[in-house]
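We treat protein structure as text, and this decision shapes the records that our systems exchange. Because each token names a local backbone shape, the row as a whole describes the fold. For reference, a complete record is included directly beneath this paragraph.
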Amino acid sequence: MNAAAVGDTLEEIAILLELKGENPFKIRAYTRAARALETLSEDLGTLVAEKRLEEVDGIGKAIAEKVTLLVTTGKLEYLDGLRGEFPAGIFELFELQGLGAKKIKLLYDKLGVDSVAKLKAVCEDGSAGQLPGLGEKSATNFLKAIVQREKCAGQFRLGDISALADGMLDDLRTLPEVDQVQVAGSHRRRKEVVGDLDFIVATRHPKEVSEYFVSHPLVDSILAQGATKSSVLLKNGIQCDLRVVKADEFPFALNYFTGSKEHNVKMRSLALERGWSLNEYRFSVAEGRPLREPLPEVQTEEDIYGSLGLAYVEPELREDRGEFAAAAEGTLPKLIELANLRGTFHCHTTASDGRATLDEMAEAALELGLQYLGIADHSKSSVQAHGLDEKRLLEQVKTIEEYNARDTGLRLFSGTECDIKKDGSLDFPEEVLSRLDYVVASVHSAFTLSETAMTERLIKAMSSPHVTMLGHLTGRLLLSREPYQVNIPAVIEAAAETGTLIEINASPYRLDMDWRWWPQAKEKGVRCVINPDAHSTRGFQDLVFGIGVARKGWLTREDVVNTLPLGKIEAVLAAKRH
């Protein structure tokens, strides 16, 4: 197990101990150790092998022994014992928005709630609303969360399954029997939510590859196993399909199973105009159609598009939203790539609700090769996130100035994620905001306003000369919380008029503003900033999901301001106030 997986396991132990009502100091020890692993600068395996885990601040002897077992064996009897003390269904409750360990423990101890079904029952009969510390409002919110969960059953956030998909892909790629392999489907198109995973493999040994696939350690159960297709259910609940083809069929299968359905329909229609039939295996002569052009030779996906008179369409654009006209005219954009980013903003530290210090976040950004990093801890109204008041914020500004004086190779920019209050005013006065390099303005409360009121709220905030960028525009949490009502075209129009940047929040839970709105924003001249909303050093890895949204939104490096190097980004940050 790597550091991230071990950290997740320690977090689970902390949750289970909290459910048991264990000593808070013991719970905190596991949480602290998990945080220590998130910011580890050395290889965990090396520390274990050299028996130096206890040298890491936050890891004591007892936890070091457990981490060693996890790294060397992948198992921990202590964790299995804790899990065994609770019904399996109780862990489903943690998937619901607004339910943490303390509320789950209360419901379990007082009402025997050990599953989503039982929670629904006690909310509907009124008994949950009568518990001290909950009330009818909480019970109503739990029911809403259950409805949302049921609506999203069988769906998975891209960020939750990407590491799993990449791991399976790497494992298949190492097989000597595999000639080519790729993930297809909505995952390849970088959709924010996916229903399953599709792997396409070219091989001359289909039986061996299929047997390896269905026996993979991630597989929970086999749904089907055949000569050309196998389906399994992975341990996290997602269905995973393997399609085995010959080498000359691979480009066709990859293209077909990447989709989207609408894109494929248009591809087949263009083929028919030439007298060809296009399916998941080949071009062939279309029955009942005159053959207007000879059947083309195809070795790659690019050849398929070229034979239809089209420039190659990147997978992210295959949604039948204008890509065919652009491909025919040669006007497809050169999409932004992760390597184009020079820095990022909207990052949190331990000063508010982050898990890494300012120095640890800076060091991680340096390791990624970034030139600059913006720090934007929460403002004072975000009490639950330990938001900064004016005094603490200005102290942080001074700390950032001192960091920059050290000439580490990374430039820090001072900022804040400033709450937009219900009336559209900002959480800090203008004279405080003027001391910062930039401001991310975000909504964190009063989500139930009407569309008109919410839109006016955002537009009023953007009218401030100190609001540089609008954070997570709709407040959505994918598969968990619906976006609040807001007139997005009106907000885009206001952003264009005021020169406000709009964020792509790269957190896999948000991916907000949605990719479907970016072509309109781009047309209006609104520029984008891709931010990870990182609450730990690990959060920087989410930038790749923000890039996926930008690519689906037809954005180039010129459309995204944090592709600019130091020496140019400063002018963008200061543009509104000047």
The chain has 23 helices and 17 strands. The two ends are 51 Å apart (CA to CA). The domain at 3-151 is CATH 1.10.150.110 (DNA polymerase; domain 1). Residues 3-20 form the longest helix (18 residues).
